[in-house]
Specification:
The structure holds 2 protein chains of 2 kinds. Chain A is mainly α. Chain A has one domain (about 1-470). Helices cover about 75% and strands about 0% of the residues of chain A. Chain A contains 20 helices and 2 strands. Chain A has helices at about 1-5, 10-25, 30-50, 70-85, 100-120, 120-140, 150-180, 185-195, 195-215, 220-230, 230-255, 260-285, 290-310, 315-340, 355-360, 360-375, 380-395, 400-425, 440-455, 460-470; strands spanning about 55-60, 65. Chain A has a two-stranded antiparallel sheet. In chain A, a hairpin with a 4-residue loop joins strand 1 (about 55-60) and strand 2. In chain A, helix 2 (about 10-25) packs antiparallel against helix 3. Chain A starts with a helix and ends with a helix. By secondary structure, chain B is mainly alpha-helical. Chain B has one domain. Chain B is built from 20 helices and 2 strands. Chain B has a two-stranded antiparallel ribbon with strand order 1-2. In chain B, a hairpin with a 4-residue loop joins strand 1 (about 65-75) and strand 2 (about 80-85). The two termini of chain B are about 25 Å apart. The model of chain B is unreliable at about 1-5 (pLDDT under 50). The chains are: A mainly alpha, B mainly alpha. The interface between A and B is medium-sized, with 32 and 33 residues.
Chain lengths: ~475, ~500
């Protein structure tokens, strides 16, 4: 019975997925009804996940671990999922006949990521990541009658399977070196053999699969096209929820090295710098909001990596904090995008002109979200950057931090351009009014409050992430 | 010090809250009620002013040291404290902030465009400024520092004038580039001290190695130096001043630039005294170049606001030179100059703002003979110009005197060059006054009425401030000195 309780959130999402599988068999689609059902399922899913957040235990012959680390990420995943589903009320980017499949795949993907963050066996991890990837491969091409973006799904798939091929190769190398695929065992064996090239190459290649998910340089090339080519809601899902799982798994794999591998740290530093710099520089010239956010997500992958590459429990705690802050801020921005472009088209920056008159609340949500992404206090984004930089300096990486801060300044330029559009530019033509219903108001205010509250009072949440990071060792 | 030692009423947090409460109240007032918004703003600014005056009165400079301390643990694992306190260096700065805010709010009484947002952003900005001055915890100093910077972007870009979008973006990026050095430096010191505390006074006791001090001080000097408009990082400053609306120029030149110099003094020189000594020649050099460069470029300007902008570069160079001497007189003078210059530039921008509102030009050749059509408004500018030159009986006279005597003693060449720079700046000030206010009347401006009594109030407040501290410099110098004397023994 206790085993059943440990697995409750996952079971619940399996149930949700099955429900929509049944719906998808119906002949006459009922999008509005599906949306109501999905919101209810996701809301209950969030409650169940939160309720089981203090569970601890092992399942399935000890290859599935439920602990504070996995439960925090499950809460974040469930939270992101309900946000995305909540904004799917006007799912204009996807054919109504496919709405049931859309919800089905979203629930399957969330389920897969929940399995992922709890798995402590390399093969379970691989199966889970493939399950989540294949759901996304199907979600991306769902965008309706837009041939312009048909290339997107293929590109995503190709890059994805390449990364996953590299990953399974890395896993096989790890097995060859350590003679085990069980993570707790690996944590004991790997630090003793980490000096061997096979171990480092194996670890890095195994990480590649997650770097792909996080859109870290050089596995980022899918991001701009997929962000632009997928329906707004799917992009939101990829940009928020799936990043959480990727961050969790990079933390777990980095922990495998036992904190004593200068070669790997150097490589991660290089990747982090390349990712921040490349993402920010290319973002400077973007015109499309989603492309801009894609490049900004590449940059943010670099910032998260700064916390992880310290290979200390403090660094992991800060990285988890940063990831959570990123979820909130990024969703704030995407919420505005989905609401302003509620017919499902790709929003251009100039279309935000005069948003502060069309909807002051959305304009404020956008501004705080972007300021958070730029790392301006008193938002959670600032505190997150402060924390990961602090962790890095505790290990003495002064130059990395300076480069990170210079990058934050560069990023401010393009975030300011978007804010300028929302607050200063006069619309060149009459844009349709923005419909902001009661629930959107509630969610926007909630996001704004969360961004500021997490930023000013990080203590509580930080102590949770710290105990979560400790469970890794 | 114990974790909790909140002696009595948290006066500093209350001062900070006057701005934040003002901001929140303004947010909930409907935008059409502009009159009410202005009244609320003025009420909140005057409460801050009254509290700061009380604070100034209640500070015991015989005892010296940190007073009115508030200290609460904020984030346990990193050692962040909500730690505020007042000593002889930040007390004048708090007073300056409250005076400039009060007069700036009043100066903008005629604003019509997006009034609500304007005052909300101004209060956010000033909350940041108060926060930097009162905080004794590096984390909060940095947080408030950034909070005070980013409202500048909308304030200039929406309500600004000449090349406003360019000026706003340039200013914001420059200043945040500064924080790209400050944050690593702060975290560097924190990590070197073991990563337990951001408390300024606990860090001070640790004693960093000479190399660490050199590295950290250089980063802090560059970072804060950008905000203090140290040559060659000053270029944002005149452009930003020119683009900004009157009240924002007043707060910006009057208070915000002081944050830079204050940061160098409070964090840089306090935590890295040996590093500061090592780099003092660089500071003196850049300060002196700033003085002369600002004066020379100022000579060639035709736009009134550019003139003031470059004179600010010149005067802030003097602050830098004063700090570089690392002597009692030099630092005394520098802090006093920060105060005097803040009040003086606020008066400058306030009077130019009035002239610009009425004539819609601030180009010197288009003006001319203004003292005949609007004698009172002109008198304010001329008074500020006299203060800028450093005429005796003005507060800045004492400040400049102290800095220059200290500079001649410690860096003879730089000191003498700075004296020459002062003469140059006197020259260009007088030239501007002569061209703008005397000479032939421009018939275009004849019909313009002089400044009303109501609008003259904030200018008179600023003027009397300059005169008061010019006549009784001891009132301020005693306070500053009480902290600077123990401070200097560390070099």
């Amino acid at each position: 019975m206790t085993d059943f309780m440990l697995f409750l959130p996952e079971l619940f999402f399996i149930f949700g997925a099955l429900l929509f599988f049944v719906f998808s068999l119906r002949k006459a689609p009922n999008p509005a009804g599906y949306h109501r059902w999905a919101v209810v399922v996701a809301a209950v899913g969030l409650l169940v996940t939160v309720a089981s957040s203090h569970q601890e235990g092992m399942l399935f012959f000890n290859c599935y671990r439920v602990d504070l680390f996995s439960q925090i990420f499950k809460v974040l995943l469930a939270l992101g999922t309900i946000w995305v589903i909540f904004s799917s009320g006007e799912l204009k980017g996807i054919d109504p006949r496919q709405h049931a499949e859309y919800y089905f795949l979203i629930f399957v993907c969330t389920l897969a990521m929940m399995l992922l963050v709890s798995s402590v066996e390399l093969l379970t991890i691989y199966v889970s990541i493939e399950l989540s990837s294949y759901s996304l491969y199907l979600l991306v091409p769902m965008r309706r009658n837009d041939d312009r973006f048909s290339e997107t799904a293929i590109k995503y798939f190709m890059v994805g399977v390449t990364a996953s091929g590299l990953m399974i190769f890395g896993i096989s190398l790890l097995f060859g070196v350590a003679h085990t695929t069980y993570v707790p065992q690996l944590m004991k064996v790997l630090p003793t053999v980490i000096a061997q090239p096979g171990a480092i190459v194996g670890l890095i290649l195994a990480l590649a699969g997650f770097f792909f998910k996080l859109a870290l340089f050089p596995f980022h090339i899918w991001a701009p096209d997929v962000y632009q080519g997928a329906a707004n809601q799917v992009t939101t899902y990829i940009a928020t929820v799936s990043k959480m799982a990727a961050a969790a798994m990079i933390i777990r794999f980095a922990g495998l090295s036992g904190g004593a591998s200068p070669a790997m740290v150097k490589l991660l530093i290089v990747l982090s710098i390349a990712s921040m710099t490349f993402g920010n520089l290319v973002a400077l010239i973007q015109k499309d909001m989603k492309r801009l956010l894609a490049y900004s997500s590449i940059a943010h992958a670099g910032y998260i990596l700064i916390g992880i590459l310290t290979l200390t429990s403090q660094g992991y705690a800060c990285a988890i904090y940063y990831a959570a802050a990123y979820l909130v801020m990024n969703y704030s921005v995407f919420l505005v995008i989905m609401k302003v472009a509620d017919d499902g088209h790709n929003l251009q920056i100039k279309e935000l002109a005069g948003l502060h008159k069309r909807s002051p609340l959305l304009a404020m949500t956008l501004m705080l979200g972007l300021f958070g992404l730029a790392g301006i206090p008193p938002t959670a984004g600032f505190t997150g950057k402060f924390l990961v930089f602090a962790a890095a300096l505790n290990k003495g990486y002064l130059f990395l931090v300076i480069i990170g801060m210079v990058n934050a300044t560069i990023s401010l330029y393009y975030y300011l351009i978007v804010i300028k559009a929302a607050y200063l530019l006069k619309p060149v033509k009459e844009y349709p009014a923005v419909h902001v219903d009661l629930w959107t108001r509630v969610v926007s205010i909630g996001l704004v409050v969360m961004t500021i509250y997490l930023g000013i009072f990080p203590d509580q949440f930080l102590s949770i992430t710290e105990s979560a990071a400790r469970t890794l060792f | 010090m114990t974790a909790m030692n909140m002696a009595g009423f948290p006066i500093l947090t209350t001062i900070l809250m006057t701005t934040i409460v003002g901001l929140l109240v303004i947010i909930f007032i409907p935008p059409e009620k502009t009159k009410l918004i202005k009244q609320v703003s003025l009420a909140s600014a005057s409460t801050g002013l009254a509290l700061c005056l009380w604070l100034y009165h209640a500070y015991d400079f015989h005892k010296g040291g940190l007073q009115f301390v508030e200290r609460v643990l904020w984030v346990k694992s990193l050692g962040i404290y909500w730690f505020n306190g007042i000593d002889g260096i930040n007390l004048p700065m708090m007073l300056l902030t409250s005076v400039v805010l009060f007069t700036a709010v009043w100066t903008m009484w005629e604003l019509e465009n997006r009034v609500k947002e304007f005052y909300a952003l101004v209060f956010l900005l000033v909350a940041g400024v108060y926060g930097v001055f009162m905080s004794m915890d590096l984390f909060w100093i940095f947080v408030w520092y950034d909070v005070s910077l980013f409202p500048m972007y909308p304030l200039i870009a929406i309500w600004g004038g000449t090349r406003k979008e360019y000026g706003a973006m340039k200013l914001t990026l420059y200043l945040l580039a500064g924080s790209a050095f400050i944050l690593p430096a702060i975290l560097f010191l924190w990590a070197k001290a073991g990563g337990h505390t951001f408390d300024l006074f606990m860090l001070q006791k640790i004693g960093f190695s000479l190399f660490d001090q050199k590295v950290a001080f250089l980063m802090l000097y560059l970072g804060f130096g950008i905000l203090a408009a140290v040559w060659p990082f000053h270029t944002w400053s005149p452009v930003g001043h020119v683009a900004a609306p009157t009240a924002v120029s007043m707060i910006h030149a009057g208070v915000l630039m002081k944050l830079g110099a204050y940061g160098v003094l409070r964090i840089g020189m306090m935590l890295c005294p040996q590093g500061a000594v090592y780099w003092s020649h660089l500071m003196a050099l850049l300060g002196t170049i700033g003085i002369i460069y600002g004066a020379l470029v100022g000579l060639a300007q035709t736009d009134l606001k550019y003139v003031i902008g470059y004179s600010s570069v010149s005067h802030m160079g003097l602050v830098g030179l004063g700090l570089a001497t690392m002597s009692v007189n030099g630092i005394n003078g520098a802090v006093f100059q920060m105060f005097a210059h803040g009040i003086m530039t606020a008066l400058f921008f306030s009077s130019v703002g009035f002239i610009y509102d009425r004539t819609h030009t601030k180009i010197i050749p288009e003006l001319g003979g203004l003292s005949k059509t609007m004698p009172i408004a002109s008198a304010f500018f001329i008074f500020a110009a006299l203060a800028g030159i450093g005429v005796p009986l003005m507060a800045s006279f004492w400040a400049e005197l102290l800095v220059l005597t200290a500079a001649v003693k410690v860096f003879p060449v730089a000191g003498i060059l700075a004296c020459v720079g002062m003469i140059l700046s006197a020259l260009f000030m007088l030239r501007v006054v002569q061209r703008t206010f005397y000479g032939d009347k421009n018939p275009k401006w004849e019909h313009i009425p002089d400044i009303s009594r109501f609008l003259a109030v904030p200018r008179v407040v600023l003027m009397s401030c300059i005169l008061f501290f010019g006549l009784f410099p001891k009132v301020m110098l005693d306070v500053i000195q009480s902290t600077v004397i123990p401070f200097v023994t560390r070099f």
